[in-house]
Amino acid sequence: MLARDERTPFSDWWWTVDKLLLGAIMALMLGGVILSLAASPPVATRIGLDPFHFFSRHMLFLLPSLLVLIGVSFLPPKQIRRLALLVFVVSILLIVATLVFGAEVKGSRRWITLLGVNIQASESAKPAFVVMAAWLFAESTKRPEMPATSMAMALLLTLVSLLVMEPDFGQTMLILMVWGALFFIAGMRMVWVAGLAGIAMAGLFSAYLLVPHVAGRIKRFMNPASGDTFQVDMAMEAFWNGGWFGLGPGEGIAKRSLPDSHTDFVFAVAAEEFGIILCLALVGLFAFIVIRTLTRAYASEDMFSRFAASGLAILFGVQAAINMAVNLQLIPAKGMTLPFISYGGSSIISLAYGVGMMLALTRQRPRTEVESMNEAGVARGYA
């Protein structure tokens, strides 16, 4: 046992971190290991790889993810901001490099290979962007003369423009939703939020008119007979096959023919093999993580910590909701991973980075530390 009066970095972290939140995140990671073992062997076999290829790589990515998660959760808010700026700049440069040098897959350039590792830079850009936007919104509440909102808008336009060029409209919509939520949380008027929502809808309609694969996905969602709906149909069949308690580990049928059963449709595999009960448990875990983080965020007196933790929780929750909604045919198909459950190295490490910041920003800091941070912000405003 660690004594409360021990003054070491680890003891300080242990007594201030939200252990329930940390436990829920670890439970999700464990669920990802189990479901990767269940869903990935048929996919690997189908493309001529070792049956445990994707599972082995999932485990390989899990170790650095844990190190990133725990390491980032030790950082104070000031270091969180500095690291987010560095990660965001590097991610933007990598996205630009991807647009120039990345391989085109299904009409999009989203991946770049560095030192033999495939990297999707948009994944790491998301949590860093949320923290940078939260910092700007927090500054706008303390320093009205600073054009922080305009800077946050410029930040948004920079990232969204690059994502549209890839193109990756799913990530674009996710970024817009989280930024809009932060804008609202920061106390902006509803007319601004409504205006931004209108612009986003106009952008989606333009994509429908101008981008064939976006139009195709929406048409197939509205009228399944208009195109190939094999994956979503198989996903729904998996839910029906699994029932409440599932067919049993390894007994799934859908994963044998689903091309993306280990990534976009791992939730359907979970339903078929372990039942709707497990799916509800996963939904409960995601909901607990989001609600717990939001509760802790709103208890914070530091505006930056409040906004950043809230934004990261919304990013985490909306991404999970999109993946599960696609599996249940509630929205048009979109390739987006289920946090910590789906296979994907860039996704898992970036999620660990984002969740590590959530843990860091929701730690119980002494009141004097919070007051000193706020006073420092006020002092900068008068300097």
Topology:
Blueprint: H1 9-16, H2 19-46, H3 53-73, H4 77-101, E1 112-114, E2 117-119, H5 121-142, H6 148-165, H7 169-185, H8 190-210, H9 212-222, H10 230-242, H11 266-298, H12 303-327, H13 345-361, H14 367-382
Family: Belongs to the SEDS family. FtsW subfamily.
Main location: membrane
Pathway: Cell wall biogenesis; peptidoglycan biosynthesis
How would you describe this structure in keywords?
383 residues; mainly alpha; two-stranded antiparallel sheet; 2 strands; disordered C terminus; Probable peptidoglycan glycosyltransferase FtsW; cell membrane; cell cycle; lipid-linked peptidoglycan transporter activity; membrane
Counting structural domains, the number is: 1
Strand content: under 5%
Q: What structural class do you assign from the helix and strand content?
A: mainly alpha
**SSE series:** HHHHEEHHHHHHHHHH
Please list the strands of the largest sheet in the order they lie side by side. Answer: 1-2
Intertermini distance: 46 Å
Q: What would the average pLDDT be, to the nearest integer?
A: 85
Shape: globular
> Could you name the ranges where pLDDT drops below 50 across 5 or more consecutive residues?
378-383
